[in-house]
Amino acid sequence: MSTVSSPIQADAATPTGSTGGSVLGTLLANGGVRFGGIVLFILFMIALAAPLLGTIDPALLDPTYRNKLPLEARPILNDAGEEVTVTHWMGTDTLGRDLYSRVIYGTRVSLIVGFSVAALAIGIGLVIGLISGYIRLLDTVIMRVMDGIMAIPAILLALSLVALWGAGLVTVILAIAVPEIPRVVRLVRAVVLSVREEPYVEAAISIGTPTPKILYRHILPNTIAPLIVQATYTCGFAILVEAILSFLGVGIPTDIPTWGNIMAEGRLLFRVYPHAILFPGIFLALAVLAINMLGDGLRDTLDPRFAKRTST
Amino acid sequence: MLAVIGKRLIATIPVMVMVAVVVFMMLRLTPGDPAAVIAGPNANSAQIEEIREQLDLNRPLWEQFAIWAGNLFRGDLGESFFFKAEVTDLIGQRIGPTLALATTTIILTVLLAVPMGIIAAYRRGTWVDRLVMGFSVLGFSVPVFVLGYLLIYIFAIQLGLVPVQGYAPLADGFWPFLQRLILPSLTLSVIYVAFIARITRASVMEILEEDYIRTARAKGQTERRILFFHALRNAAVPIVTAIGIGIGLLIGSVVVTESVFNIPGLGRLTVDAVLGRDYPTIQGVILVFSFAYVMINLLIDIAYTLFDPRIRY
């Protein structure tokens, strides 16, 4: 890091890649990748093992046990009809549901939304970006449309799409993915435009390699590193937007426990019982923080030039 | 200078046209009958028919667009189904609080973020730098509504320093106005500060490596003058660009912040419109916000020429 050539590259606080070794080794040498990776892995495990983590039915109502503070314990009948003691680690909500169970199950929805949006936006954006970068005739039209979509603030666009399509898991995923597509298209197009001037691509064209094969063999591999980084950021942003939509009451239906829904329900009695907003809020912030740190780490190690290309 | 402004102004036209096309097509590309979608699940066929008439949905697509765009051009955004009022009037009533909130947020952000970024760049690698960068990563991750409630809980409920929620127009006096805007602006500015501080740091750091900074030091210029005069001025273009790009971020967060703090602005209007499936209002708000976004970035493009006379369009 003796010379600094681009504004964002300068963020690479930890010098990496000097030790050689495998890609994985280089990645793990980065603190952000390690922290983000571990937290994300733990959240994954929580989502997978939600029923095994001492949770009870997240939809179980108990009007006699409303608005309990964290750590309150009480007896409850389990499926076999036996009496067991349940500790409400995070207290209960205004309907007497166990907040701990709801937050743990909420992890599932957030991760599903994050990964689906990232996969969808990258997949669609990649195809449009390759077409736009390689076929000059369509480039102008596609990029004008993308400029138009990008001029609409992402959350507003997602909000209005949800209003049109109705609230639900699939529509929320689609609505969050649409505003993200132009960013991917721009990124892929920039890579295509720079790579297609490379001598090996010209050579491939001159010996008559068909266009699809050139795209697949020579251009696609160059997009992988920046796309992995972009996918990470998109995933984090999607989790945040899903929580916002649910919080505003227009996202995932309220019968599914999501972090945003739990917080939306906690709003009314927030002044007296702030824990209903605090706990899902901590989980949400931690998940997004982990993903962002992972993204920063991946960017610094995988593709230092990436920042330069997209910062203008 | 006028020619520059004119040229840039013309360049925004295709973008705004595309925004209008996207907003127009969004409803028409929705699967099913757009009139039924707008009317909602409980509407009867007469109501659906009425909406179809009102939006000219029986005409060919290009004719619909021509009528709609023509109205738009004359400043007619249609009539709200939910509020039973002209969308332009609704927006006019609600724009004040949002403008006030956005303005205080931008001022607060610049006042906080730019010095933070400069100090972090200057003290690069020290604990100050790590603190600023740590805040920057954190600020990007804490959801705006969680932060909003946290601040309400600490400053309004526990300490009782400011009112919990609500809004008072400037006409009610400066102090009540400011008192109710402090927390929402602070909430909104955190993500924005995180973003601008990061760009400022990177950009100033790059400038500090330049030869002319060494020259300035060699001729005995004070460090403060080097930082705030030589470095900041030359680092201004990326910082100002980031402020413009951040407006998009800001607009998204305004919607949420106004809901948390119960501010009767455009953001609150958007959420009410979405909940009421009031499509004309949603369209109107999107167009206004996008127009503001494009115009602010246009102003910033023009401002470049002031910061860096080498830039010519």
Distance between the termini of chain B: 10 Å
Shape of chain A: elongated
Amount of beta strand of chain B: under 5%
Biggest interface and residues each: A-B, 53 and 61 residues
Beta content of chain A: under 5%
- Oligomeric description of these chains: heterodimer
Q: What's the helix count of chain B? A: 12
Low-confidence stretches of chain A: 1-20, 306-312
Question: How would you describe what is shown here?
Answer:
The complex is a heterodimer of chains A (312) and B (313). Chain A has 312 residues and is mostly helical. Chain A has helices at 23-28, 31-48, 99-134, 136-150, 154-165, 169-195, 199-206, 211-248, 259-266, 275-302, 304-310; strands spanning 72-77, 83-88. A two-stranded antiparallel sheet of chain A has the order 1-2. In chain A, β1 and β2 form a beta hairpin. Chain A is elongated, with a radius of gyration of 23 Å. Residues 1-20 and 306-312 of chain A have low confidence and may be disordered. The longest helix of chain B has 39 residues, at 223-261.
Brief sketch in words of this structure:
The complex is a heterodimer of chains A (312) and B (313). Chain A contains eleven helices and two strands; from the N terminus they run ααββααααααααα. Chain A has 312 residues and is mainly α.
Structure characteristics:
A: 312 residues; mainly alpha; two-stranded antiparallel ribbon; 11 helices; 2 strands; elongated
Blueprint of the fold:
The complex is a heterodimer of chains A (312) and B (313).
Chain A: H1 23-28, H2 31-48, E1 72-77, E2 83-88, H3 99-134, H4 136-150, H5 154-165, H6 169-195, H7 199-206, H8 211-248, H9 259-266, H10 275-302, H11 304-310
Antiparallel strand pairs in A: 1-2
Chain B: H1 2-28, H2 34-39, H3 45-54, H4 61-73, H5 87-122, H6 127-141, H7 144-158, H8 174-208, H9 211-218, H10 223-261, H11 266-275, H12 279-307
Helix pairs in contact in B: 1-12, 5-6, 5-8, 5-10, 5-12, 6-8, 7-8, 7-10, 8-10, 9-10, 10-11, 10-12, 11-12
